[in-house]
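Model it.
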Amino acid sequence: MAFRTLKMTQNGLLSRQARPAAAGPAPTGQRLWAQARAHIAQRRWDEATHALDALLRSQVEAVPVLLLLASVSLATGSVRDAVAHLQQAAASLADDIDAIGRVAQALSRVGETRAAHACLLHPEIARTANARALLMLAHVFQGLGQHAEALALMERARGLGLDGADFRYFHALQLQFNGRIAEAEAEMESCLAMGPTFGRASLTLARVRRQTVASNHVRFIRSRLAAVEQGSEDHAAFEFALHKELDDLGRYEEAWSALQRGNEVMRSRLGHDPSTERAIFDALVTGFDAESVAAEEATPAGPVPIFIVGMPRSGTTLLERILGNHSMVAPAGELADFPRQLRWAANLHGHALVDLPLLGACAHLDFPLLGRRYLEQTRWRAQGRRFYVDKLPPNFMLIGFIRRALPHARILHMVRDPMDVCFSNYRALFGDAYAYSYDLESLGHHHRQYQRLMQHWHRTLPGAVLDVDYDELVRDTESAARKLLGFCGLAYEPACLDTTGNESPVATLSSAQVRMPIHQRSLGEWCRYERQLQPLRHALA
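Modeled.
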């Protein structure tokens, strides 16, 4: 889920920051402020920068101006300038709860995790009675993966009277992430009672538990489908929810029809370009050979990251739960820090994890600097332990960068049966994060590129990446755990196998499932749709 959040928040940085600052500076700077905003509306970035610089020199209240300057810097592609403006804004914060929230949010979006975290320690947060500001700050905590803190602020906001369908939805998510499943289910039910077309809430509710003939929401979902805006993401979410519930009830023909309709809505909304995707994978293969990624092992003075990569829905969350049970490992969740620091090192803003312009800008990248920047932003997550887990599945595309920047890091690659993992992607609803997942042929194409790149990493980096087989992990967990722990330089601990005793928050689609004992029920799930999935089988061949 973190990668999806990265894309969504970065896409909206300019407009979201421009709006809160619209009140502008004191009257003496109103003319320059209006000029700057007019230049931005016309995409005249140099003129906007000059006007905003003049505002700073006029000694107006600096934070709104610096936020807007950061947005202009990102619009022109300069991540480093944006970071510099935001750091200056953080140093200028007073006891203004709205400004604290906006600056923390902006810092988090550009990868300045430590600075964002420092903003969240501002004493004004403990004093404020501004419920909406608390909700904004809760979302910043959520973006940083600090879900206990996010839930605490949401409950403070609820105590101050904040309510509504949107609030209850996000509150229910935090309850679920923090393991309070029964409360999350009740809160999601109350959200749906308030919001007539809240598709995401229905989908989340459907996934909280296995539905039964005696207790399900099929009739409710069908009634909402009759009212929802056709072709919207809400429409797609209701179809995915209907698929999940009908699948639980064994009504597979109806379930498949709902799943197809939901995926068609998302495919029509997003599209997918296989030729561009192939060009990116080609560039990764040709850009990293054995010589270019060779790096000497180093013994770091501080905590060591363990990267977990693979296809989404391949079992990466389960693997993190097993590792996170170890006394020397802190589970940090799905971190966007490495791709964000890669953008900073290349000084090229963008919305995707990796794209052709970024690869072109990385020709002379300072890899040691990239590694230092990453460690500076993430090591606080280790909480005094020797290792911490960075589990962002699509980082499999960045293994060459990771190896050069962090030669001491451990990399675990979760491998799952192609039909199982692709079917799990097809029924996931990732929003706008993975456009390939809404079409069977595109899914097959993406999986072929993924396999090709992983084979390349194994050839060029022999022994640097350990494949962890999902089937083996759930069938013989102890044997698989001993192997992967040894690869990471960790002694085996029996507690690693008790995923039900792990109380750390989980913010992925598996957040309810991974709190159960390890099981084999998801093996071969695609087989009940074997006839309908023949196009996928052919695409994978």
